[in-house]
Amino acid sequence: xxxxxxxxxxxxxxxxxxxxxxxxxxxxxxxxxxxxxxxxxxxxxxxxxxxxxxxxxxxxxxxxxxxxxxxxxxxxxxxxxxxxxxxxxxxxxxxxxxxxxxxxxxxxxxxxxxxxxxxxxxxxxxxxxxxxxxxxxxxxxxxxxxxxxxxxxxxxxxxxxxxxxxxxxxxxxxxxxxxxxxxxxxxxxxxxxxxxxxxxxxxxxxxxxxxxxxxxxxxxxxxxxxxxxxxxxxxxxxxxxxxxxxxxxxxxxxxxxxxx
Amino acid sequence: xxxxxxxxxxxxxxxxxxxxxxxxxxxxxxxxxxxxxxxxxxxxxxxxxxxxxxxxxxxxxxxxxxxxxxxxxxxxxxxxxxxxxxxxxxxxxxxxxxxxxxxxxxxxxxxxxxxxxxxxxxxxxxxxxxxxxxxxxxxxxxxxxxxxxxxxxxxxxxxxxxxxxxxxxxxxxxxxxxxxxxxxxxxxxxxxxxxxxxxxxxxxxxxxxxxxxxxxxxxxxxxxxxxxxxxxxxxxxxxxxxxxxxxxxxxxxx
Lengths: 260, 254
Prior knowledge:
Chain B: Belongs to the binding-protein-dependent transport system permease family. The complex is a heterodimer of chains A (260) and B (254). Chain A has 260 residues and is an alpha/beta fold.
């Protein structure tokens, strides 16, 4: 198995030392080249799970193996795209993409790789601009180019289009799909959008909340690029599954709010 | 350019008002000298080079002290940001020292280093160091976790993470620290020079005051203010604006 998530749980302790279980006993196997979407209501721990896979957070119990090696910390074998572009403002667009390549490639190769990936996200003309001169959508494309340029085993995406407007999001979803089809990366994509999941993923893992668990594992067999009318039935199905979870979260939040 | 015009009108009016008050003759010229006699004193001082030497001497004290302030302040700031135990102990002391006006150190400096330049430089260093320390500390502590997480997933850690991400991310705060440190050093310099044995602008100010030469006193105050404003506006404000713009922090003119 390419990526093996083994019985992973995460518990936080608040100031009063009360334990809050984010999710429990997550077991998940992901194949090489798969485009997997983690879908769930807010509060189900899907972003936390992604941070643990990235090595940025530690699981409270359980372990994660990438190509049979246990994940102990963050590293260039697992690249990540965050909800915000996370570009360094003191570096140009091209320098930002070269940042993870400094150790492994010589100057010339770094520049070639950066140029290739900038072209892939259609930003070749902006190589020498600074991030603040770019729109939010352009910045996010640069951060995707940077993650791809690392040529990591695993590409982790944490609601990468969540902060963008509808039109930009659609364009970037199409671009990501094309890039994935040509590069065949293993992608884990966290989102709370049902439509985004169906449009992009081969496989949708639905997480429930309080505590987070995997409640469904659905294969998506629709032909690409996926059309709205083909997606409708599956969308309905997922919505039914998620409705119960969302109501559960809302009830709990109301109860919590009322008890204060 | 509209701003320049407004300023010319403002300062002309101010000088005319000043001259008007002198002409009313309520106070003697030894208390409020006329703008012309102040201008004469400044002109004479520049002509016989005494004021030039004062300015050169003051700048020498300032630059040596300021350079030490920046180096010590930066190192202390990094240490406070990185070592929690230091921050909790030394940090609270530096916070207290920061609120002590520099002139308070002058008597101590004179006893330790005498009336010479070493005393002045010591006071300037004390004056400029702590504000740099506190800004550097905040700059390093406030590096957005997003930058750190992103860098870690790109394989950066340890010294590389510190030099390539933490330090550049702290630059905007550091620049503000440098600017404030300059302003504090400049004030400390004047306080220290007032009690020194010269040369220096502060020394000449005290000297003129002893001889009841109010025209020169006011002339030197104007020179001190002008130099301070020019350095602040022309050099530091510009650097700060450029950095804020580059770092995408300039919200007023995006």
